[in-house]
Amino acid sequence: VQLQASGGGLVQAGDSLRLSCAASIRTFVSAGMAWFRQAPGKEREFVAGVSRDTVSTRYTDSVKDRFTISRDNAKNTVYLQMINLKPEDTAVHYCAILQYASWSRVASWGQGTEVTVSS
Questions:
Q1: Average pLDDT of 29-33?
Q2: How far apart are CA 57 and CA 48, in angstroms?
Q3: How many CB atoms lie within 10 A of CB 59?
Q4: What is the Rg, in whole angstroms, of the alpha carbon atoms belonging to the chain?
Q5: Is 36:14 a contact under the CB 8 Å cutoff?
Q6: What number of CA atoms fall less than 13 Å from residue 1's CA on the CB side?
Q7: Residue 15 CB: number of other CB atoms within 10 A?
Q8: pLDDT, tens digit (0-9, with 9 covering 90-100), for 95-104
Q9: 77-82 and 67-72 beta bridge pairing
Q10: Distance from CA of residue 54 to its chain's centroid?
Q11: What secondary structure does DSSP assign to 14-64, as a single string?
């Protein structure tokens, strides 16, 4: 499985970005998807997840009300809309295919896209 993430960049605090992650195969539609991030010197952390049927979503507390995860199964793509970005959101963001019935166990990682938020 190949996951191609894009949309990162250098922005100022308060700005918005939308990350995209396109999967190469149709099994995308049968799996939960998530975004994780890893800031410099820190461990990779879960940011947001969406179930395969888009009914359920989950967010880490620090991004609730600012980030929205969504997916388009027809396009094999998952998105992360980020608003009101903060310097602490600076990190390499990774998309992932989740293992069945889990928000944290990853079946496959994509390459990262870097988000830098200046104050």
A1: 85
A2: 7
A3: 17
A4: 13
A5: no
A6: 22
A7: 14
A8: 999 998 899 8
A9: antiparallel
A10: 14
A11: T--EEEEEEESSGGGGGS-EEEEEE-TTS--EEEEEE-TTSS-EEE-GGGT
Structure tokens at 32: 């939960």
Q: What integer pLDDT is reported at residue 100 of this predicted model? A: 87
Residue 26 pLDDT class (50, 70, 90 cuts): low
What's the token pair of residue 27? 């099994």
CB of 77 within 8 A of CB of 23?
yes
* Rounded distance between C-alpha atoms, residue 5 and residue 86, angstroms: 21
- Residues 41-88 pLDDT 10s: 999 999 999 999 999 999 999 999 999 999 998 888 999 999 999 999
- 53: how many CB neighbours lie within 10 A of its CB? 11
| Beta pairing partners, 114 | 92
